[in-house]
Design a protein that fits this description.
Largest sheet: none
CATH architecture: Orthogonal Bundle
CATH topology: Farnesyl Diphosphate Synthase
Helix content: over 70%
Radius of gyration: 19 Å
Structural class: mainly alpha
Distance between the termini: 46 Å
Length: 288
């Protein structure tokens, strides 16, 4: 039972799903206006988590041939045979998406449901099916999945959307490429063996590191903008500290592209985003 639960957790990519749900809650928190009641906020978080889980499971299902070629993923359940691909899985994945989007529409509003659906669609179809095997810019558009989660949360307060959540969505869009390209440098040989045209495989690690640095600077610059639209000093200070650390690690990556510096930058990106999302939720609550 414990092993099966672990496999399900892996297939649904719940660790990523939780982060995506937090993005939705951050979008809600930074949006001016009266927040919905707590039970509706819980529905929002669960809907985004469930839609992300459906996309994550679909990603595992579709990419089982690629996963078999990569050391990092060759033990995933659809590769090892622990889970057998087939219609029951596709029905379950579809049902999760329908429940999440339908629940958001019925309990919150159509805009929340639309953004919830688009987040899953971008990751599951646009990134996984259309782009990943075809272009080095696959993850650029894949980054919209997190952006739509922010907009889903914002729409629960104001379907018309305000500047603060729009800028936070832009941050998520810009953040995903340097985050994932850092991992792709560390796993260069894996992606090359699988024939996946991740940016470092296509242009080389050195050039990819410079592109990562440029994206990182853009991320940090964009993350500061919401402070000019009403967020306070807690958010601004956190954005500058976390962003400064991310830029520092990206510079180290440019100086010496390697698995070690790439993984350090990968973790720096997680720290930067985690701090930013927490500050985005705490700042309006503490400073009013």
């Amino acid at each position: 039972m414990r092993a099966t639960a672990g496999h399900i957790y892996s297939v649904l990519k719940l660790r990523i799903g939780i982060m995506i749900a937090v993005c939705a809650l951050a979008g809600l928190a930074v949006t001016p206006g009266a927040a919905p009641p707590a039970w509706q906020i819980a529905v929002l978080g669960l809907a985004v988590l469930l839609s992300s889980a459906s996309a994550g499971a679909f990603n595992h299902y579709v990419e089982r041939d690629l996963d078999a070629k990569m050391a990092r993923t060759r033990n995933r359940p659809f590769v090892t045979g622990r889970f057998r691909p087939g219609l029951p899985w596709l029905w379950a994945i579809g049902a999760m998406l329908v429940v999440s989007v339908g629940g958001a529409a019925l309990i919150l509003n159509i805009q929340v449901a639309l953004h919830t659906f688009l987040g899953a669609f971008v990751y599951g179809v646009v990134y996984t099916v259309w782009l990943k095997r075809r272009t080095a810019w696959n993850i650029v558009w894949g980054g919209l999945a997190g952006s739509f989660a922010v907009l889903a949360g914002a729409s629960a307060v104001n379907p018309g959307l305000a500047a603060e959540p729009v800028w936070l969505a832009i941050v998520l869009f810009l953040w995903t490429p340097p985050h994932f390209w850092s991992l792709a440098i560390a796993l260069h040989d894996d992606y090359k063996a699988a024939g996946v045209p991740m940016l470092p495989v296509v242009v080389g690690d050195t050039k990819a590191a410079w592109i990562i640095l440029a994206h990182t600077i853009a991320v940090v610059a964009a993350s500061i903008v919401p402070a000019f639209y009403g967020l306070g000093w807690i958010y601004l200070a956190t954005a500058m500290v976390g962003g400064g650390w991310f830029i520092h690690r990206s510079i180290q990556l440019v100086k010496a592209p390697s698995r070690k510096t790439a993984m350090a930058n990968f973790f720096a990106s997680l720290i930067q985003l985690g701090l930013l999302l927490v500050a985005a939720m705490l700042d309006p609550w503490i400073l009013g």
